[in-house]
From TrEMBL:
Span list, region Disordered: 22-41
Gene Ontology terms, MF aspect: RNA binding
Gene for this chain: LOC105043458
Keywords: RNA-binding
Protein name: RNA-binding protein 1 isoform X4
Length: 210
DNA sequence: AGCACA
């Protein structure tokens, strides 16, 4: 009955024979408390007009998840195989909500779409969306340069950080975490939409691509 | 499954 621990790890290990699936998500908040400047209970309050995006005041993480899932489902972009890889939680720059910003190359310029955001001018974001993406499911031996190749084409790409961690379970192999910085949450969301749940690592070839 | 750096 201890198999439950490995319901996913097993899939990961077997993926080495097929194609590993990259899981990209928003960065997790630094802590569950202390982010609120006032120390009060208005947790999800944000200053901008939220009516246009259909968001209301959000009280906790689960609400955000639900709202985000809803909008993704409406857009029919992401398939939910794992369901857990999407974590658009608080943690961004709360002072700078991005509604309809199409600056810096994301979205449209003079009627022409740029970058990988082609076709969609903007992506509605949760008020507390982060500019950093969290990536897991990478092979333990992948290099920083390899992973950079995946994200560099996206507008607003800034930097990538690989982190080697030991498994929380004894005897299991170490794994690689990855944090990808973008100039703003909107640009991060574009990359997220494009990469979420996609299989990018061709383990047969031992490299990225097909 | 696993969330770092400033």
């Amino acid at each position: 009955m201890a198999d439950g621990y490995w319901k996913h790890g097993d899939a990961l290990r077997q993926a080495s024979a097929a194609q590993a699936s990259l899981q990209v998500s928003m960065k997790r908040p630094r802590s569950d408390h202390g982010d609120v400047s006032g120390g009060l209970e208005y947790v999800g309050y944000h200053p901008r007009e939220e009516g246009r995006m259909g968001y209301r005041v959000i009280r906790d993480t689960k609400s955000i998840d639900a709202a985000y899932e809803r909008y993704l489902r409406d857009r029919q972009i992401v398939s939910y195989s794992s369901g857990e890889s999407l974590r658009p939680v608080a943690g961004g720059m709360g002072s700078h909500p991005v509604d309809d910003m199409h600056m810096m190359g994301v979205g449209v310029m003079d009627g022409q779409s740029v970058g990988y955001g082609t076709g969609r001018s903007e992506i509605p974001l949760p008020p507390d969306a982060s500019s950093t993406l969290y990536v897991e499911g990478l092979p333990a031996n992948c290099t920083r340069r390899e992973v950079s190749h995946i994200f560099r084409p996206f507008a607003g790409f800034r930097e990538i950080r690989l982190v080697n961690k030991d498994s929380r379970f004894p005897g299991a192999d170490p794994f690689v975490l990855c944090f990808v910085d973008f100039s703003n949450p909107s640009q991060a969301a574009v990359a997220l939409d494009a990469l979420q749940g996609r299989g990018l690592w061709n383990s047969k070839a031992g490299r990225f691509g097909s």
